[in-house]
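Intended use. Records like the one below are meant for learning the mapping from a protein sequence to its folded structure. Do not use them to infer anything beyond what is encoded.
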Amino acid sequence: MQIILEIVKFFYELILKLFSRLIEKFTDLNICEKIIVINCGAAFFAIILPVAKYYIFETYFTINNPLAVYMIGIVLIMLITEHYRNKITFFIRETVNIYYLFWVIYLHLSGELTKAPYIITPGYYLNIIVPLIFILFSFLSFRFYEKG
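Structure written out for the chain above:
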């Protein structure tokens, strides 16, 4: 029983140490990068929420975001490049977000989400707002806190 308690105590201390290190890293970031990290939480909801719904057979069916996997990649890029503020990472951040934003808007305007008549849900607008926040605060971070 003592061994089990020591193992649980070890993992508890390990998790506590990891969490405190993450909080320390977060507090060291500038305000623009903090907003980008917080926006990654909103990106999670942009990934899982449906972007449209349609009515058929007396019930509503939802359409998931067909570009969700790309949003996951964008979140990873935004988190990895947060400590490297230079022209190359700025260009990468802006390019991937603008490219994603273009395709999200294009899918709706071209009617390619589905051939059934559909209604846009709040998840679609979140897929527009999240990249816009990434674009804006990446620019501000580059503009005011550039390292190279």
